[in-house]
Amino acid sequence: MQNNYIIPIFVPHQGCLNECTFCNQKSISGQSKKLTTKEVRDTIDEYLRSFKDPYSYKEIAFFGGSFTGIELKKQEELLEVANEYIKNKQIDSIRISTRPDYINKNILKMLKKYGVKTIELRSSVHK
User: Is the pLDDT of residue 14 over 80?
Assistant: First the structure.
């Protein structure tokens, strides 16, 4: 049986203007700084060193914000780093979390270009 590994990369509450307590990563994690490409590389490299099964399915997952609500230039910067690992055959895919109202055809094309295979959609209903 093949192992599946997820490398979590947190973009704490970036891309969303709401302050819902169930997904507000600033309050949940205490982390509020913007993520750098160096931190993404360091996190991925650390996880890759710890994986025991070389034939496992490995996925980078951007959690903790509405990824497609982040400034487009920053999205592409983060995805480019993750995509380098796909090109080098160290990672199989990328996963993101976002709101359904932050998705359109242009965004889907861009995500596909970088190797995003899974998009988790979270509720956009706020009270």
Answer: no
Can you spell out the DSSP letters for the chain?
Answer: ---EEEEEEE-TTTT-----TTT-HHHHH---SPP-HHHHHHHHHHHHHH---TTSEEEEEEESS-GGGS-HHHHHHHHHHHHHHHHTTS--EEEEEE-GGG--HHHHHHHHHTTEEEEEE------
Q: Has residue 99 got a pLDDT over 90?
A: no
Integer Cα distance of 25 and 68 in angstroms: 16
The pTM of the full predicted model, rounded to 2 decimals, is 0.82
Structure tokens at 116: 């995003």
